[in-house]
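Human: Can I borrow your eye for a moment on a structure tokenisation matter? Separate attempts, laid side by side, tell us more than any discussion would. Could you pick a protein and write out its sequence and tokenised fold? No explanation is needed for now; the record alone will do.

Assistant:
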Amino acid sequence: MARRLWGKAPPKFGRIGQGCHIEEGSFVRAEEIFIGDYVHIGPGARIAATGGVTIGTGTIMGPRVTIHSSNHRYDGDGLSSLPYDGVTILRRVSIGEHVWIGDNVMICPGVQIGEGAVIAMGSVVTKDVPPLGIVGGNPAALIKMRDRTRYEKLKQAGASYLRRKNNRCMGVRIIREK
């Protein structure tokens, strides 16, 4: 069962998997959110899932991640007011399995983040991220790719971080780099 740490009224989900952690101070809006197993959503996350958000199994999000899946119409023949009109454009956000999203990342409507991707802290993700891609910046750009062989080996072994942590199968080490 998910560990739910929000305030007075819990959000409604399309689906929330087992072993999930949603930290205190996070805000999830809309029933169009589907969360896989062993997902961690850090404190202060803001997820506006009106257009739909899918978060794959084993994904870890740091604090203050913002995800939007809708936007206003500001241009076009049907525009009826300024700076935008009453039309809401829905664009699903999809986050693959075993994705690591750093602190203070913003994900824009319609973005697809591939399996095993890493999103550097402070990034603004405006375009799709390939599987195993490591991106960073504003707007986020591809920095490099993860090692596919190593990734597949860990995935086949079921080495999901939160699952192992929940089952007390691993300790935490701290390494100070120079």
In short: Residues 1-9 have pLDDT under 50 and may be disordered. The first helix runs from residue 148 to 156. Residues 36 and 57 are 4 Å apart (CA to CA). Helices lie at 148-156, 161-166.
